[in-house]
Amino acid sequence: MYRPIEDYGVIGDLHTVALVSKTGSIDWLCLPRFDAGACFANLLGGEGRGHWRISPKDQMIAKSRRYVKDTLVLETLFEDDSGSFRVVDFMPPRLDNPCLIRIVEGVSGVSRVESELEVRFDYGQTVPWVKRTQDGLNMIAGPHALSLESSVNLMGRNMETFAEFVLEKGERVSFTLTYHGSLEPAPRALDASIALENTIEFWQNWVLQCREDFGEYRDVVVRSLITLKALTYAPTGGIVAAPTTSLPEQMGGSRNWDYRYCWLRDATFTLYALMVDGYADEARRWRDWLLRAAAGDPQQLRIMYGVAGERLIPEFEIPWLNGYENSRPVRVGNAASDQFQLDVYGELMDAFYQFRRSGIPSLNDAWDLEVKVVEFVEKRWRDPDEGIWEIRGPRRDFTYSKVMAWVALDRAIRVTERFGFEGPSARWKAVADEIKKEVMTKGYNEDIGAFTQYFGSTSLDASCLMLPLVGFIKADDPMMLSTARAIDERLSEDGLLRRYSDDQDHVDGLDGEEGVFLACSFWMVDNLALAGRKDEAKDRLDHLLTLGNDLGLFSEEYDVHSKRMLGNFPQAFTHVGIVNTVRNVLNSQSPAKHRAG
After folding, report:
1. Where would I find the Trehalase-like N-terminal domain in this sequence (predicted)?
2. Which residues does 402 contact at the CB level (< 8 Å), separation at least 6?
């Protein structure tokens, strides 16, 4: 049985993330890192593909759940007529072996608890060989191994591992599941209580670095910042777009993509949110990751990489998984990695500019790369591309892509003028002016009064709401006000925005539909705030924030009819929108201060 996407919470160790449902079941976990094969894959395959449930014997849904304040430690409370108990789930931030710890605490009365562990490596396909050890169990399949230790008796049944026990108030039982290579000896399990204290301390100290208050929105913003941090891969500094693959944009549809990779675009948005709030270390580490990943010819720059900078991300389908609520196919890898997306060059240049604005020391290697990037944009800005939405139809002259080509040149010019780096700024200004003239004449349709999806089109695209956010045009410019109004009228559903209108020329080349795109809805709020419509912006923001789950987590999309989350979860793009939009609404910052000051 599939649980709604919004039923899940996340825990993680800065290498990977586990999804925990309201039933106390972990239904998704990839080890040892985000893009590795899943050992718990019930999320995408239904029963029998791997999970770990700790709950009352009747598998009731939890009475309540919450995160320990300012942490990624999840507490789930179960209650019945005889008593109640709490499950504390967390993954200690680490440098070596991944470790998942579950502590069960008696809260009141007497509770009968059941643990049901089903390990299936390779995305739910491979049943491990299980052997008993002095301290617990060891589960092995090929190169993978998991060691389970607990203070209660563990029993084998139908190729699963069970434990049944009784808890009285104040009693505690712990389970520690540790991953290691099958050729390596099983590492010694962590002390659960000490690991819990250290994990709480780690996250709370990290949150203390935030230099903004955020007023009434403090909790939702902090939860978003923690979520963004959880999506970073600590060994390299890479940032994944989401920790899941193939959660559908339409239930039963085929728009199911693998987001467990590092998009340059998504990462730069994430970095902006973190840098402004004082998290310079994350920015430095991502800068170094980027220099390693993007080294060489800008013509070979990829739009996405693996978490360690891998360039090859082949896409294939997994036939033995039915997909979330039978939404097929389940995909691993992402063919969009081979696309030409002009806008990423602008995002890249903007990221390096933001580093300098934030006082992060520059590197000579970085400027050398930036100059090559700008020279590449000078040569290729007229070329059509697949655009921000990674269409799988013909390339087009997307308006947003051209604007971001302008951003690439604009940021290079600013670096020479503001920070004294050497470059042919006069030539760059001439090219930037030429791009801007093209966008203003070919990207704006006088008949509909809006910047359109691509040159010569009548279709609208919410990505055009980014134009004032990157400093291309002011939010209160008549052309931008008219564009925002047209997008709101034609792409809005229940006050939320779809990415684009695709009813005329089927621009994305895909079958099926999708839900409203939450990041775009936040961009509309940004435009309202920056245009001085603060009350309306706040009302819309408050409505958007009701679409998260009870833990403050948001997916990529939302179905306004079924009132359910859609798409991969939790989604970095959406949580970035929360952080930046709250800041805009509270401070009513100008576009120049937002990204291009």
Report:
1. 4-150
2. 342, 381, 435, 438, 439, 443, 455
